[in-house]
Amino acid sequence: MKYSNTIQFKMAIAISISFLLSNCTVSKRTNEPLGLKESYKNSFLIGAALNGAQIDETDPIVAKTITHEFSAITPENVMKAEIIHPGWDIYNFNYADKLVALGKKYQIAVNGHTLIWHSQLPEFAKRINNSDSLRYYFENHIKTLASRYDGKIASWDVVNEALNEDGSLRNTIFLQKLGPNYIVEAFRLAQKAAPNTELYYNDFNIENPQKRAGAIDMIKKIQAAGVRIDGVGIQGHWQVNKVPFNNIEESIIAFSKLGLKVMFTELDITVLPNPWDSNTADVNMKAENNAYFNPYTSGIPDSIQQIFTKTYIDLFALFLKHKKEVTRVTFWGVNDHQSWLNDWPIKGRTNYPLLFDRNSKPKDTYYNILDLPKQIQ
Ligand code: 9MR
Hints:
The chain is an alpha/beta fold and 377 residues long.
């Protein structure tokens, strides 16, 4: 193609640049920059955990972030037993129903979190001391929730955090009163009540070899009983300098060899010092606040921010490498303001674990993650 003069040539360049831009970074449909869900649509779902106010769409900026960025949502708390099932035969579906309606309105997949967990149990359930009553609670809880939302939500975390760090079964009220087969039974009940919903086991640190071995054992028992389990959620509450990349990759491979989908279900990366120097997400462990443990109250230093970004890039590069096995990556919160890590393991700290800052403004980290699928292909 020949251009007769410089003006025509410059115009052709300008048109080519705007064509390139419109194809690379701006979606034609909405004329908005691509969000994460669009950028990762050929790789895996990108999710976020939502709190009550976010389900209510009270803040328009946050509401926009949710619909623009995420293809999956998990209730941070509203489907947990203490909220949704406060009395023997009393259920409070208000926020869970709203969450499901939100998912439907914006075509966002909902993951139910969680049916059987020893934490956040209602008072009446904590006080149960005979096996028959606990079995009644257990069956009634699973049947009621799983059947109510069958076909309306994509998946359930059927059992959450049932393992100790050494891979043995955690000594919960369910283990004590129902015996070790309670996990198989939970999946069996869920399968019956929710034939159209995927069923997952969810836990933290199951990328670590010992705990992973316990999870694999448990999954094999469920499968050997002829009961359906569709996937496993590795929570992903990690520390900025200590993300166990090798263990994560080995786990993706090991779990998918069992025929399961692999998900990262509660991803966040703390930048604050940890009093125990470990990657636990055990909500019962707490410590006192002081300046040493809360160093970034007025902002995070550039040096830390860069390590944080690099860590997220390395993680998402690993997830993309295994995009055939990884089906969803969910952040545990939309923005830093909401994160549980401001209050755990020490209350009242200022943490920076997510891709969106306290005002829901995307960080540089976000743009790096957004662009990664294009760069890696
Ligand atoms: O983020 C949740 C926080 O708001 C609750 O106070 C806390 C109470 O147990 O649970 C948090 O979510 C947990 C999740 O349900 C299971 N894995 C660990 C998460 C962080 O504690």
